[in-house]
UniProtKB/TrEMBL annotation:
Keywords: Coiled coil, Hydrogen ion transport, Ion transport, Transport
Protein name: V-type proton ATPase subunit G
Organism: Linum trigynum
GO molecular function, one term: proton-transporting ATPase activity, rotational mechanism
Taxonomic lineage: Eukaryota, Viridiplantae, Streptophyta, Embryophyta, Tracheophyta
Top-level lineage group: Eukaryota
Quaternary organization: V-ATPase is a heteromultimeric enzyme made up of two complexes: the ATP-hydrolytic V1 complex and the proton translocation V0 complex.
GO cellular component, one term: vacuolar proton-transporting V-type ATPase, V1 domain
Family, per entry: Belongs to the V-ATPase G subunit family.
Gene3D superfamilies: 1.20.5.2950
PANTHER family: V-TYPE PROTON ATPASE SUBUNIT G, VACUOLAR ATP SYNTHASE SUBUNIT G
Role according to the record: Subunit of the V1 complex of vacuolar(H+)-ATPase (V-ATPase), a multisubunit enzyme composed of a peripheral complex (V1) that hydrolyzes ATP and a membrane integral complex (V0) that translocates protons. V-ATPase is responsible for acidifying and maintaining the pH of intracellular compartments and in some cell types, is targeted to the plasma membrane, where it is responsible for acidifying the extracellular environment. Catalytic subunit of the peripheral V1 complex of vacuolar ATPase (V-ATPase). V-ATPase is responsible for acidifying a variety of intracellular compartments in eukaryotic cells.
């Protein structure tokens, strides 16, 4: 009886050790999967951050470029308009002076 009892205890100890190995293997597999998931999440976050930064830099460049282009365009348009005003003023200045002189020198009753 004692030998079957010792044998039963040995079987229980062996089963307990086997269960402990299974639990440890499952725990290690879980930890490895969690580490892998964390690494994947960090990689995806880094890629997303890089993508967002690239989009931001692109928009910033486009906006800054547009601003510079707008300034140049406005300067050119302003220069053209000033040129037109000067040429128009030069062209009609003699007529305006003559009209003013007539008005000033003409005596009305």
């Amino acid at each position: 009886m004692e030998s079957s009892r010792g044998n039963g205890i040995q079987l229980l100890l062996a089963a307990e050790q086997e269960a402990q190995h299974i639990v440890n293997a499952a725990r290690n597999a879980k930890l490895a999967r969690l580490k892998q998931a964390k690494d994947e999440a960090e990689r995806e976050a880094t890629e997303f951050r890089a993508q967002m930064e690239a989009q931001y830099q692109k928009k910033l460049t486009e906006t800054s470029g547009d601003s510079g282009a707008n300034v140049k365009r406005l300067e050119q348009e302003t220069g053209v308009k000033i040129g037109h005003l000067k040429s128009d003023g030069s062209r009609i200045s003699h007529d305006v002076i003559d009209m003013l002189l007539r008005q000033v020198t003409t005596v009305k009753n």
